[in-house]
Design goal:
This protein is an alpha/beta fold and 349 residues long. The chain is built from 11 helices and 11 strands. 31% of the residues lie in helices and 18% in strands.
Length: 349
C-alpha cells in the first residue's frame, strides 16, 4: 500500500466544454494557442473554421486533422477510438480512415501521423466535437445491426439501402454506450492534455430536478458523462453577453465544476490558461479576506512599554472591539473607561 504523500499525479488536464451552438465553445477551446501551447485539433464537424480568428503566428501552433464524418460514412468513431488509444497510427487525408486500404494503393495519397503517447504536455489535444463522435457511434451500431440481420425497434429487418429508415432500439443504444465508454475511459486515463467540445442536453436528475449536461449519446447516458473529466466548463449567452463558468455553484440548473477549484467566470477575458497553470485560484469570500486583514493586524509585532498603564490596554481593547463590531471607537472607549479606575504600575512615577 502506497501513502498518498508518496504519490505523484499526472499534470494532464481533461476538460469538457459544452453549450448550445454559437456560445463560444470552440473559441474558448483554442485559447491555449494564445499562451504558447501547441494544438492537435481533430475536427469532426468543420468547426475548426473558428481557428482563423487566431493570429498568423498562433495558427502555426495548430495541427489540424479533418475527419469528415457523415451518416453514410461514420468514420468518426472508428478513427477517434484508434487515436485515443495512444498508439502510433496514420490517417489518410482523403477519407480520414486509419490505414486506409484505398489510399494505400495510391502513391500520391497524403497521410497524417498521430501518436498521442509521444506528445508532451506542451500539446493540447482537442476533439471537436464528441457529440458528433457519439452520433457516429450510433450510425456504426445501426450498420452493424443491419449486417447481422437484426430487427430494429419496430421489429423490421432492413437492408443497407434502407438504413435511413432503421429505428434504433435497445441493442443499438447499448452498442453506442459501449463505444463511447471505451472512448471516454481512455480520455479519463490519458496522460495528455485533452479538451472535448460537446453540445448540451437537459436531463432529469434522481431528485426530479432538470439540469444541463454535455450531450454525449443518449440523454440517459449523458447524465453521468461529466464524471470522465477533471473540469466541466459551460458556455452560454445571457443578457446579450457570452458567459463561461467552471464553478460548481455557478447555476443550480447547470452541471459545471473543477477538481482544482478553478473559477473562470470572474475573468474579464475568457481563457483556459488557469486549468493548465493553476495561476488563478478560486475567488475567496469577501468576508474571509477582511477577516484575514484583521488577523494580520493583530499579529503585527509591537513594542509594549513595561510602564504601560491599564488605561492604555483598555483603550486598545476597546478599539479592537470597535473594529470587529464596526462601532465607533470613541463610544466604546468612553463606556469602558467610565467603569475602569486607573491602576498604578510598579514602575510608575
Amino acid at each position: 500500500m502506497t501513502k498518498l504523500s508518496n504519490t505523484v499525479d499526472s499534470e494532464a488536464q481533461h476538460i469538457c466544454i459544452f453549450g448550445e451552438p454559437y456560445t463560444g465553445k470552440s473559441t474558448l477551446a483554442m485559447t491555449p494557442a494564445t499562451f504558447g501551447k501547441l494544438l492537435l485539433w481533430f475536427s469532426f464537424d468543420r468547426g475548426h473554421t473558428v481557428l482563423r480568428k487566431l493570429a498568423p503566428h498562433q495558427q502555426e501552433l495548430v495541427d489540424l486533422v479533418r475527419i469528415p464524418d457523415t451518416k453514410d460514412n461514420p468514420v468518426g468513431i472508428q478513427t477517434a477510438l484508434k487515436v485515443i488509444s495512444g498508439a502510433a497510427i496514420t490517417i489518410c487525408e482523403d477519407h480520414a480512415a486509419v490505414d486506409c486500404a484505398v489510399c494505400k494503393r495510391v502513391d500520391s495519397s497524403l497521410w497524417t501521423s498521430v501518436n498521442l503517447n509521444a506528445l508532451s504536455l506542451n500539446t493540447v489535444v482537442v476533439f471537436d466535437h464528441i457529440t458528433q463522435i457519439a452520433d457516429s457511434a450510433m450510425q456504426y451500431a445501426i450498420e452493424r445491426s443491419i449486417r447481422n440481420h437484426e430487427k430494429d425497434a419496430t421489429g423490421v429487418v432492413l437492408d443497407m439501402k434502407e438504413k435511413d429508415y432503421f429505428k434504433p432500439g435497445h441493442g443499438q443504444y447499448m452498442m453506442q454506450g459501449f463505444l463511447m465508454t471505451k472512448f471516454l475511459t481512455n480520455v479519463q486515463q490519458s496522460n495528455n492534455h485533452i479538451i472535448c467540445i460537446a453540445h448540451v442536453a437537459e436531463v432529469e436528475q434522481e431528485d426530479g430536478k432538470k439540469k444541463l449536461v454535455p450531450l454525449i449519446g443518449s440523454v440517459p447516458y449523458s447524465r453521468n458523462s461529466p464524471k470522465y473529466f477533471d473540469h466541466l466548463v459551460c458556455c452560454e449567452v445571457t443578457n446579450k453577453e457570452h458567459r463561461f463558468a467552471s464553478d460548481t455553484t455557478y447555476s443550480a440548473s447547470i452541471v459545471s465544476g473543477s477538481r482544482r477549484d478553478i473559477s473562470i467566470e470572474h475573468k474579464g477575458k475568457p481563457t483556459l490558461e488557469p486549468f493548465f497553470s493553476g495561476s488563478i485560484p478560486k475567488i475567496s469570500n469577501t468576508g474571509v479576506v477582511e477577516a484575514k486583514k484583521v488577523l494580520t493586524s493583530l499579529v503585527t509585532p509591537a513594542i509594549v512599554s513595561p510602564v504601560a498603564s491599564v488605561n492604555d490596554a483598555t483603550k486598545k481593547r476597546s478599539e479592537l472591539l470597535a473594529r470587529l463590531n464596526k462601532t465607533t471607537p470613541t463610544t466604546t472607549t468612553s463606556a469602558t473607561s467610565a467603569n475602569t479606575q486607573p491602576t498604578q504600575g510598579p514602575n510608575t512615577p
